[in-house]
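Two proteins were folded this term; both appear here.
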Amino acid sequence: MAIFTRITLVMCMLITANTFAKKTITVASPDTKIKVSLSTDNNGLYYKVSYKGVLMVDNSRLNISFKEGGAFNTNLAIADANTERITEDYDLITGKTSKVHSESNRIIVPVTEKSGAKRTLDIEIRVFNDGVAFRYVIPKQDQWAANVNITDETDSFNLTQNPLVTAMYRVNYTTSHEGLYTKIDLDHLKADTLMDMPVLFEFPGNLYMAITEAALHDYAGMYLMKHNGVIESRLSPLPHQKDIKVKASLPHNSPWRVMMISDKPGAFLESNILTNLNEPCKIKDLSWLKPGKTTFPWWNGDVVPDTINAPGNNYVTNMYYVDFCAKYGIEYHSVVEYGLHEWYVNDGSGFQPGPHADPSKAVPGLDMQQICDSAAKKGVGIRVWVHFYALYPKLDETFAQYEKWGIKGLMCDFMDRDDQEMVNMQDEILQKAAQHHLHIQFHGAYKPTGESRTWPNEFTREGTLNYENDKWSDWVTPDADVNVAFTRLLAGSTDYHLGGFRAASPAQFKIHYTRPFVMGTRCHMLAMYVVLENALGMVCDDPTAYIGQPGFEFLQQVPTTWDETHVIDAKPGEWLAIARRKGKDWYIGAITNHDSRTITKTFDFLPAGNYTAEIWSDAPATDSNLNHLVKEVKHITRETAMTMLLSAGGGQVMHLYPSPL
């Protein structure tokens, strides 16, 4: 009898232990190099991430809290879930590649509270060969009302091995996302301070991770922060309060929280993981979308010849730039302002909208219909600059008027927020702009999150410190450019006010509001047209700065959209050499920081065959004029050795095209 009792007791203990045993769900990338596990304990959900057997993210929390019911982290049970393979092939109008093949393994894990309200949500995880993404999927259910308020989402990223961090600190959530980057190990990273995304992490053993987000729609933008020694997420709160981050109508999804992972620092610049995580294109007719380069006269100070008649917000001033575009193959001219007054009616000051600002009406003396008609006859499209807070209250009537005039697109500026309200307003702008055949360039805006797949009329976004700052500061250096390439550029198209043709060293640089200087060599500037992903590359300087100048012919040739991208060589914070293909032609751009260097590689990314290489290189180091460069023509094959000599703050560009030897 005693033996039977002991056996029964042991069996009961085994059954009880099995019933409450910790369940772990595991999913791997298609190539099995990345592995993610999801489990629970007394404090809720946690996950781990490894790459090639190396643990990169140790036990890390998934924390989401609601005004209705509090934190979702107590007494949770995760259900079994099956892994499925997702394979997609799709086209991109803008981006790193024109055709994308995507493969990932996905798992959707139901998670339920075993007590209390017994709320349920799903954790959806997708693992690609180049990264991991997860999001919250909140279904409609009896345990919740139809509308809920998310008060926090403090997901953690418990990174191992004290990686080196490249990040941009932010003071608060009201920001234009422009600043310099800090590079420091995680242990010494400033605590409890917001960091803009993407953030780059360099692990020992040449392993890399970048954290950002994808498919930001009807949700608050996310930041990172080191808190209690661990990287955590923070959400931008809705305006005029601090508690509510997201007002959600169920069902509702969070954006994807993305960890790009590789042992090659350039892999993230080749990755399409963010567009993979967005919905397919919602614009049926794409024939009107025409990426290209554009003037932006505000940057150069609205320079016009002394012989022009009555310069100002008028026909003759704008046609001076239109004629330049027509002659030299620049697709767009941007009508911006003159004499620090917008082209449209506004009774505000300092470009800020007054109570009667109206971007659907041009200032007296400026006939927009005449300008659009005249430019169209010359094959040039007209774009405009508009302040967001002048545009949004009159969105429908303004877009209707732009379409009537024949305007092709616009820069929308000064949002400086990424709370849920602003995110939704920007989505509305994209959708309504598409209805009126308008492309959009967001300025003073948050990072892209891959939405250009869904709304390809979004040509570019700013969200970074760029050459407009040369008009009033010396912050934008070649070092800053390289840091941007390994952080902000990972998120996608980067609007940068390119094209300054007055290159200067740090010692030569002077702040000029009109005809600004740019730091670094002219070849560095040319290379930025290839290094950056930007479907609307600016040609910001005045026409006289370009005409007859060395390197301008490359600026005329270089496309703004690409069929293929290949990183030749890269080291975060130091240099980057990248090749991009358009049709059968390849364009190569290399930039370096303040150090000169030599990059030696082959052209092994090329298909077999013979090529002509037009090469623009920095002038010899003995030449103090950084606008000087050397052009040469060579014949190459994919086996040819490539030696790139980059001056301090310099660069190099190449245009390769098939040719018989």
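Next, the second protein.
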Amino acid sequence: MFQKQSHIIPARVSDITRSAEAAARAIPPSFPLEATVAVNPFLGQLSESLAMASARMMRVAGVRITRSPEDYVLSMHQGEITDTDLAEALEASTDLQKPAGVAELKEAVSAHGDDVTGPLPTIADLAAASTGIDWPSVIEKTVGLWAAGHFDKGQALWSPAPGLDVFAAWRAWAVHDLTPEIAGLAGFCAHVSNAPDTAERAILRASEAIGLTEAAADTAFHRLYMDLGGWSQHARWQLWQAELDGRSDTALTGLLAIRLIWEEALLAHVPGIAEDWAEAVSAHAAPIEPSAGQVALAILQEAADRAHQRKLAHALDGGTGSAGSKTETDRPFLQAAFCIDVRSEVFRRALEAVDPSIETIGFAGFFGLPISHKAKGSDVAEAHLPVLLNASVETTSHCDAANEHEVRIAARTSRAWGRFRQAAVSSFAFIEAAGPLYAAKLVRDALGMPAKPPKPDPAPQVVGGLSAEAKTDTAQAVLKAMSMTEGHGDYVLLLGHGGHTTNNPHESAYHCGACGGYTGEVSARVLAALLNDPETRAGLSARGITVPYATRFIAGLHDTTTDQVTLYPDGLGAAHDATLGKIEAWLDRAGRAARTERSLKLPGSTPDTVSARAFNWAEVRPEWGLAGCAAFIAAPRAATAGKDLGGRAFLHSYDWRADEGFATLELILTAPVVVASWISLQYYGSTVAPDVFGGGNKLIHNVVGGIGVVEGNGGGLRPGLPLQAVHDGEKPVHEPLRLSVMIEAPREAIGDVLDRHPEVRALFDNGWLHLFALKDGKIEARYRPGLSWCVGSDQAIDV
């Protein structure tokens, strides 16, 4: 019944293999729930413009990756997007198909803007239309059921074919799974059994059998990967992790082989669709070119970005910041270093307004420490650093030997009890027998009453310690990167952040992205201990960085859901208790002000009820996370102090005059800016294309394997942000804009960094990010593709 393997010439083998690799690289990674971080869903399209990527995504996923034409038209009618914005966006566009003027642009949007054609069909789609059997759904559920067990990270009690690679494990399962045959695909088990023994050979045989040409393979394979949804992205994450460690991984190749075997079988089963499939192959082989509507919508997105940039430029140009009243010789009593996270912008403004002796600083929340941490009672190594980097410092919060033994026994008991509760033979009996014992907990949780907070873990320690030179090297690098080599306050708070939520599988998405989806407590405590160490201080002084003897560094954790700050005065001593009380009172006042501001945006919330959302197990919107993020500003605090940026800007402290050789500038552009772009574009993708890049509806989520979620009993893993993270039930709360990066530094220095890092330059050259140079806190120039700038009267912003 099924076609037999044909002779494949070596040149074709090379082309097909190369196409499979290219398609795999077009898929973004999706990180597991335990340490979720935002990922740019267009990571594989950074070499293309928005219009070109729109054409690609329409072909392989059937989605528009801009806002709808109606949304842009409404913004124009409401005056948010002006004709000036449209004219400047048209001028900036390099697309040869662009309309001649603003009137023609508006006409093009009306005539062609909504030409959503859907993806090119797979063989499964064509077979479904021919037979009336929903083969795509059958594939999603059967592959999803197997994948949930194979990729499981400890949630399931049993996993099929453990230890085998993806393709071998699936074959071992599929030869016994009768679901396809019951659905009508007779002989499928035998077909799988007769398949080649490796994924690579299976891909080559299936490609030959279905007549896939080399020219068509790139987007045809990409289409199949998109069809597998979150499972492809999880496999891409496995490859990402492997390559960070200098290894490789075959999971993505295995998934493509699985999907192609289904295509091969269905084409043989429904030969009447061969002509339609040949047309699809021909369409895949055609060059990708954006339509007139896609070009017009990309230009309107540029206009929307520029409309926001006008408002941002006005905010930066208006008023005087709180730092404006200080002289260069003023030494603050309290400095508070926050993560650059946009949620910190609200709290920083509130804290600086409490007392003029307070100064705030912005820096990536891992504080420059590449930490791999083992928490109390655990041997799991948590990577508390950006996912772009590898850990090089091992830390632990293990107790002393006796107490650690007790903690581990308690943890094992808890895990055993949990498995007993979930086991098939005991789960129902457990509810009958033990349910009443949980009455108090059920009542407390139902009323949203916070449980007694657990004691903090012991202060983290560096495994094996650090030499005096290593301490000094680390401290010097961090202080230089933070632009904190002088002018230290009497007390310096190092505030990591995390968000407490109840009954929320995406909790780690509210934590610190710079800490790999964990809270920033560990990084802050390690750095505070390092900077308080007399040996470190002596080493810094010898290198010309003198931290006053009286200055004390204190770690803390900013809970972004409740806007409460917990301090960890490790080793500080009772002599500082009175001052700590004063600082905590300041933080409480700032927290109340921040909650008041945030309550205006949270549905059904008041300043007094914002914190309660963290403890409500039915709350689908505990906070808005980073929704609304639209700008990244690296400049001295004086440029933004006292200016209301609406909780929409990443704020990184940076003084280029103290940046010898512009090493810190290079670090900012290649790490924090890239991480911020991932966050911004994930929110963008989850808003404009939620069916493909969004996490679906929280109300019907089921956690799968500790990896991610599915909706209801579906088999498709849902990557990205849940609907409730970007939507209030009536309208989107995230305005999908591409991030505007603003850096106060010489344009030549910025250009030199981009020239050395083509992968970062591509973000700006192809329009995925905007770049501006600041001077004295004001926009001086706009970056243009090709390492050029628009300055003065040619600047595309009317300030």
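The first strand starts at residue 334 and ends at 338. Residues 292-317 form the longest helix (26 residues). These notes refer to the second protein only.
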